[in-house]
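Hi everyone, sorry if this is the wrong subforum. Our group has a chain we'd like a structural model of before ordering constructs, and none of us has done structure prediction before. Sequence below.
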Amino acid sequence: MSFISIVLSVFTAFAAMLTPKFTAPVPEIFQDDFIPVLRFVATSDSHIKTLGDNGCKRVSSMIKTAYAISDADKDYNKLDAVVFSGDLTDSGWFDSFAAFTAVTDTELREGTERLAVVSKAHDSYTFGKFSLGIFSEMTGQEADFHKVINGFHFIGISRSSTLKHYTDSQVEWLDAQLAAAVSESPEKPVFVFQHEHVLNTVYGSSETDGWGLDTFSQVLEKYPQAIHISGHSHFPANDPRAVWQDSFTAINDGGLAYYELAVDGKNGQFPEEKDRQSQALIIEVDAKNRVLVKVLDVDEGKITREFLIDNVTEASKKKYNPEYRAAASSAPVFGKDAVLSVEKKNGKYFVTVPQATVSGDNEIFIYRITVTNAKGKETHSDWQFSDYFFADMPDSVTFEGFRAQSGSKITVVAEDVWGNRSEPLTTEI
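Answer:
Right subforum, don't worry. Here is the predicted structure as tokens:
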């Protein structure tokens, strides 16, 4: 018996004892006229270190909640697969892969397939290219895969066995797999899983956001049926920009470990409570090949947003095209009774602003504050997240304390995810 097999058997023996015991909630579902013929979970970035850690607990909770949703559906009570798009582990050590395998083996029922890809990021920190072999021996799954589940094609691409993220042969392989899938079922979506976002697609993938690669762009652009699902950025999946469409469709799965965002072209912007991040996607397809994406807050057991993709075979898609959506959006609006609340503590001013509102599937992204003195000179400016990415979004937002002269004017505007700004709220101190 190999060393890896021994490690896995020990971890599996303890997994059931260390994973949380609770009755998973059944989140409120917004769509009620959608009857699935396929249901799977998509997530990433569990960053598991060892058995029983927070990553394991979230994987366990996610799977339990997905089964609760499935069991409660009188029309389709199956969970067909759970798919992980890389950074399964935090460092790629043996016990990390063993813990991932053990917790998923423990939680998944017969009839639910586990699929995963290995990243060139955290999964490869310890053993580099050899992480592919460790993963395959632990899980019994090839690192690059093409599976057909209920007539739908699932294609996964792991890191290469070279110094490159991906090789030319992997690009050719993906092209061949997509061609075969589309030839067999041209009317159906084809799901492609990769750790990194495709460059310049979903929020988090731009050159300034820093989390996109263009290795497979030219291949994916040939197949409107392709739905590319990825993680890596830790940008929120309930952001309206988490679904992108043009020649193909791309989706950010959010991931299970901490939030990061980009503001004003600068990534590495972390919310104060970033470690509350715990998102996964419950994805369903119906007989009309419509794709319903439900964003699950794993810790809260709540569905925070739904995206209905009903145009997967259109050559050029507008429904979730960012330029089209930005042009169709309108500016945020404060309530007619909205006012700024100012409190002075220890010589600093703290300004609280009530949340503004937006129309449609838009979201308030940030609030911007500007302070000018009695002579009209700007003395302070800052921004604050609206916390739209949490299931329990607060009713108001408070800016960090700042110093200002008496007689200064405070101005606050709300800004949505597309850059539209509200009329200002103002006050004087």
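For your construct planning: The longest helix spans residues 54-72. The helical segments are 3-18, 54-72, 94-107, 131-139, 168-184, 217-220, 322-328.
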